[in-house]
Design a protein that fits this description.
The complex is a heterodimer of chains A (166) and B (527).
Chain A lengths: L1 H14 L5 H18 L3 E7 L5 H7 L13 E3 L8 E5 L2 E2 H13 L5 E5 L1 H5 L9 E3 L9 E3 L6 H13 L1
Parallel strand pairs in A: 1-2, 1-3, 3-5, 5-7
Antiparallel strand pairs in A: 4-6
Chain B lengths: L8 E2 L8 E3 L7 E6 L2 H13 L3 E10 H4 L1 E10 L2 E8 L5 E2 L9 H12 L2 E2 L47 E6 L11 E7 L2 E8 L7 H5 L7 H5 L7 H16 L5 H29 L3 H22 L8 E2 L2 E2 L5 H27 L1 H7 L7 H6 L4 H5 L35 H24 L17 E7 L4 E8 L5 E7 L2 H11 L8 H8 L4 H4 L1
Parallel strand pairs in B: 3-6, 7-8
Antiparallel strand pairs in B: 1-2, 2-3, 4-5, 5-6, 9-10, 10-11, 12-13, 14-15, 15-16
Helix pairs in contact in B: 6-7, 7-8, 7-13, 7-15, 8-9, 9-13
The chains are: A alpha/beta (166), B alpha+beta (527).
The complex binds iron/sulfur cluster.
The site of iron/sulfur cluster has 13 residues of chain A, from helix 3 and helix 5.
Chain lengths: 166, 527
């Protein structure tokens, strides 16, 4: 056990990276924004309404030690009932239309909705079809859009923060 | 049409169906026509008896070119893949293959939803169609038009009920607690024990197959690379292989080396992400932090060298969309060394961490016989002792270039549990890092792209060993050389039913760990 703990500690200390200085200043400023506006951590509920999973991979990356989203007062929650913001990916498939509407109805006001990725913004490469409603705004009101296929973690972070700042 | 001189007639398992080798340099594929439904069934049974797999199955409206609807079935056999087509009668009756290969069940239901093929005596519940379009409207028929004025309805699904005292159902999804794709799981439980798990999918169905129709083959690549975002290289490569076989084009050797570089980088990126997430599932948050940092370094180098973090749109029919110079290749070699060192250290920590091994060992077991019965491929199959890897030599099988000269060593583990799937990931990261170094050092000189001449009514099948398993793309061109039908097939079609079985000896709280140990694709199979 002791060697294991020693390894964990050693590896942990060696590799824990710090954000680059310019990045850190920017994030501090935005964290201040969140506190000023919400007075607590921002709760995000992510909903995949039919994406290819590319956008999800980049949303996962928001939690890596480089971006460290939680460290700046933003966290992902499990229920739309606890969410300040829905972060939605993918074109909204016909088969997800009802589930997405239900999630939106469940969330408390002010119901911030951010469309993440080209598909969520405009329907993207999948567009509108017999199986796809297209852009998120075709199904529920959208407050902010983050284009990209997929958007990078930095673009996602900037887009989420811009949406709160509105 | 293919030149007669390239024809090499083959028969398998003493069955009467004659096969011809697909031209080109992709994975070995034999194409044949079944004389009738009985011949298809007999061939399928012979494949099953020989320990082979049902690799893919789809329906196709080929009235414009062949005057009929067709069923396509691809079987994984020792020598590679046998692609069998069956002309269907006007009533679209087709024999049910699910009695021979259970994996056929969902594929047949999708073929019924999308094309309207009627599988005699088979499970008739819709699969991809929920309530978004009428039951008698089949999107992949060329002359079907649009389902005018149809309101999207919420539909019930006929789950299999489990009776008995104390048994109750726990529904989960389609929206999950976490950043995960949509799908529905219905557990039947007594206390905490899972008696049955039944999946209902199709939530990510966005009509991809229909979108291919009518596009130029070169244009389809972007779409193929977005069937499943975590496997964009595998899909783009399989699609390119299929188009190249259909058009009789051969990508230059340097392009094949670059494709392999990208595919292995995709494999490592996904395995790094998964190994971190499995640590986290078992309460080792340290593992997540470490592996997600490595993954981020990996993706940043992708962005720098390839212009895209996930490598989308880098593989195109005819070759590769970009080239790497010597300094880029040496950066790849350096990164492989650094990441290899760190992963070896992390593996020791995982292996010695009692709490983690306690969660991993004997959890979510899938045995080899079941893996074979369910036609599994890829990582999950290898973690259940089935040594199947399209990149590696095996008796009677030579992998396509560039793998043939690399001597790929497939990883395997016979335990079939969460620990085995983690161990296979670790072993595959190590092997991929070795392959990446060899590919980077030995990349042949020359062009990275060959021209594609349009080919009327050509057809091709591409098979690529992606990080999750075997990715297959079937392509058929119309009389003008445009895409008439494209069917992308994800290994998750076969592996999802395996998950239903792997949870049966465990309790619901272990489900997230077991589910993610497979990490299957929703989008890839929902299409
Ligand atoms: S925007 Fe791109 S990455 Fe995101 S879901 Fe759409 S196709 Fe996939």
């Amino acid at each position: 056990m002791i060697p294991v703990i020693r390894r964990i500690l050693r590896a942990g200390i060696v590799s824990e990276p710090r954000p680059e200085p310019a990045e850190a200043v920017e994030l501090d400023r935005l964290q201040g924004e969140i506190r000023r506006i919400l007075g607590r951590a921002l709760a995000i509920r992510q909903v995949d309404a039919g994406s290819c999973n590319g956008c999800e991979l980049e949303i996962h990356a928001l939690n890596n030690p480089y971006v460290n989203l939680e460290g700046y007062g933003i966290r992902f929650v499990a229920s739309p009932r606890h969410a300040d913001m829905l972060l939605i990916t993918g074109p909204v498939t016909k088969n997800m239309e009802h589930a997405l509407k239900t999630a939106w109805e469940c969330m408390p006001d002010p119901k911030l909705v951010v469309a993440a990725g080209d598909c969520a913004c405009s329907g993207g490469i999948f567009g509108e079809s017999y199986a796809s409603c297209g852009a998120v705004e075709r199904v529920i009101p959208v407050d902010a859009r983050i284009p990209g296929c997929p958007p990078t973690p930095r673009q996602l972070l900037a887009g989420i923060l811009a949406a709160i700042g509105r | 049409m293919r030149p007669k001189t390239a024809a090499r007639v083959m028969k398998f398992f003493d069955e009467p169906v004659e096969f011809e080798k697909q031209p080109g340099i992709g994975a070995p594929v034999w194409r044949g026509r079944a004389g009738g439904g009985a011949a298809l069934q007999a061939f399928a049974a012979a494949v099953r008896a020989a320990g082979g797999r049902l690799a893919a199955l789809w329906g196709s409206d080929e009235r414009p070119t062949a005057g009929c609807f067709r069923l396509h079935a691809v079987f994984g056999i020792e020598a590679g893949h046998a692609w069998l087509a069956l002309d269907l009668p006007p009533d679209l009756f087709c024999p049910d293959l699910s009695g021979i290969f259970p994996a056929a069940n969902r594929m047949q239901r999708a073929a019924r939803d999308l094309v309207g093929i009627d599988f005699e005596g088979a499970d008739r519940r819709p699969w991809l169609r929920h309530g978004g379009w009428p039951a008698d409207w089949h999107p992949l028929r060329h002359d079907i038009g649009e389902p005018a004025g149809f309101a999207n309805q919420v539909t019930d699904y006929d789950f299999v009920r489990v009776g008995g005292e104390g048994a109750h159902e726990v529904p989960v999804g389609p929206i999950h607690a976490g950043t995960i794709e949509p799908g529905h799981f219905r557990f039947s439980v007594v206390g905490e024990r899972v008696l049955r798990l039944e999946q209902r999918f199709g939530y990510a169905h966005k009509g991809i197959e229909r979108l291919f129709a009518g596009r130029a083959p070169a244009e389809g690549a972007r779409l193929a690379g977005r069937v499943c975002g975590d496997s964009t290289c595998a899909y783009a490569w399989a699609y390119a292989d299929a188009v190249e076989a259909a058009c009789g084009a051969s990508p230059p050797p340097r392009a094949l080396g670059l494709r392999a570089l990208m595919l292995e980088r995709e494999r490592v990126a996904n395995h790094l992400g998964d190994l971190g997430a499995r640590g986290n599932d078992a309460s080792l948050a340290f593992g997540l932090a470490q592996f997600s940092r490595l993954r981020e370094d990996w993706l940043r180098l992708n962005a720098r060298l390839f212009g895209h973090r996930l490598l989308m749109d880098c593989i195109v029919p005819g070759g590769a969309a970009l080239d790497l110079d010597a300094s880029a290749l040496s950066l790849i070699v350096e990164q492989c060394e650094a990441v290899g060192r760190e992963v070896r250290a992390l593996r020791r920590i995982y292996d010695e961490h009692a709490g983690l091994q306690d969660r991993f060992l004997t959890t979510g077991v899938l045995d080899m016989a079941l893996a074979r019965e369910l036609s599994l491929s890829g990582l999950a199959a290898r973690a259940s002792g089935l040594i199947l890897d399209g990149r590696a030599h095996r008796q009677g099988y030579t992998p396509p270039p560039p793998w043939a000269t690399l001597g790929v060593r497939p990883a395997s583990d016979e335990r079939g549990d969460v620990a085995a799937r983690a161990a296979v990931r670790f072993a595959e990261v190590a092997e991929s890092l070795r392959l990446l170094r060899e590919l980077a050092v030995g990349l042949p000189a020359g062009d990275v792209r060959a021209g594609l001449a349009p080919a009327a009514a050509g057809a091709g099948l591409g098979v690529v060993e992606g990080w999750r398993g075997e990715v297959i793309v079937g392509v058929a061109l119309d009389a003008e050389g445009r895409l008439a039908r494209v069917h992308p097939h994800d290994p998750s079609w076969q592996a999802w039913p395996a998950l239903e079985r792997a949870v049966l000896n465990d309790i619901i709280p272990d489900f997230p760990l077991i589910n993610k140990s497979f990490n299957l694709s929703y989008s890839g199979a929902d299409l």
